[in-house]
Amino acid sequence: MVSVIPIEVVGMAVPVPGEAPLMLLREPDGARRWLAIMIGYGEAEALVRAREQIAQPRPGTIELLGDVLAAFGQGVAAVELTEVRDGIFYADLVLASGTRVSARPSDAVALGLRQGAPISVAEEVLDVASVQLEVEQEAEGPAADVLDTEAEVARFRAELDGLRPEDFDDL
Fold this sequence. Notes:
It is built from five helices and nine strands, in the order ββββααβββαβαβα.
């Protein structure tokens, strides 16, 4: 059985203007490893809308898919990022019935966010494709968590600034 680890969506980043956006995911506990997955602009927009629960006057593709699943008495029970092969990330939607449906990570995560489903990643994916950032804790309490996250995001973005498309060839 594959070991999966919960992961949270931190946000989107565009490290180089004109380049593809990155979906930023972070392990909330433990090693606090980060994943950056290249996605398209449309997918980034759908993810932001899903993360912020922004309603649209008419359903977008992600909302439509959720509505179709609901019409058939289904919902998304979980989202799992399952593997990375040849630099391409793969994900599964786990439906309420237990059926697994292969999906692009950006679509799966957006639908999972819309439906309140837990999002996890196979430990193997984190082992080969994540970046671990060390952040020193200087304060305590709720404000410290915000500072901690802001410092992590800043360090992660600084590391992303040095990446080139060729760096993903070995994944």
